[in-house]
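Posting for a labmate who doesn't have an account.
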Amino acid sequence: MARIDAFLKLGLTQNCSDIHLAVGVPPLLRMHGDLLPIKFRDLGAEELDSYVNEIMTESQRDRFDSGEDLDFSYVSEDDVRYRVNLFRKATGVGATFRFIPTDVPTLESLNLPQVCKDVCDNHQGMVLVTGSTGTGKSTTLAAMIDYLNRHRNLNIISLEDPIEFVHRSAKSQVIQRELGTHLTSFADGIRSSLREDPDVILVGEMRDAETISMAMTAAETGHLVFGTLHTTGAVKTIDRIIDALPSDQREQTKAFLSQSLKAVMTQNLIKTPDGKGRHACLEVMVMTRAIANLIQTDQNHQIFSQLQTGGDMGMQTMDQALLDAVQAKHADPDHAFRFAQDKTLFQKFVTDTAILRRVDLQEPV
């Protein structure tokens, strides 16, 4: 057994989401959003280096020694799967392990809104799940792929970095390919996928102009494309895509977004009232004729008002999602308050009055 498995097993028994290992500090556990140390000595440089060497392949070790950061999947001796990121910093090696449940989550188990199922009924176009790191984008996308796998007869190709949830083909065939193992880049993966008779393509991260452009091509040519961006709202997502591509393609990009973008869902994870879990709150934009017209006429700033009034189509702002979660007692009001744009909506629910005082003083919450 690799020695690092002992830390991973401890984290798993504590129901944590992530385990952080770094030189000069004890191991840290991410517990329901908070980072907490375990009772252990500070890790030494040689000690941690020897731990991570035990779980790397020879090719991974060569890449890491050459200065590359590594993203890969690791399966412990207990047959538990983790997503691993290895990196180097000033004091030595650092590592982050994300626990990946064996069972693929369902949309129902995640308590996600009905619109997440509705967008899966599209036969072509692009659906984006966005948010900052650690907001559960991969989990939501896994649940959507699982929904398609169980309800439609499709060829689904999932391009990931690394592979996290392992899908077993049901009604659909699910092909999972990993960056660095099965493909050299997401753009190359999409290009190859188009020759593999896909119905659905999942792009783990649309991180550069070439990947975005290839994903757009796939969506325009009769495929349903799911992807992620590290953006914090529908308007910022649209602006990001337009700005990422060459300026001489601006009109073409706007035309694509207005015709082929089906939905943008931006996610935050909010602590539950008992502090023992987290609840996903989603801002949702569904493409309509009105929103398409706003994109075409460079009036993206007015899209937000469409989210506020588009509830009959499943649309909602983040504040509306947060408020609904607080009123339904799915989300801790103090934590929701920190993510809200219009904080006055949440003041009557807040239990920690110190938060309100900091807002009154215009200090960051």
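Reply:
Got it, the structure tokens are right above this. The first helix runs from residue 4 to 13.
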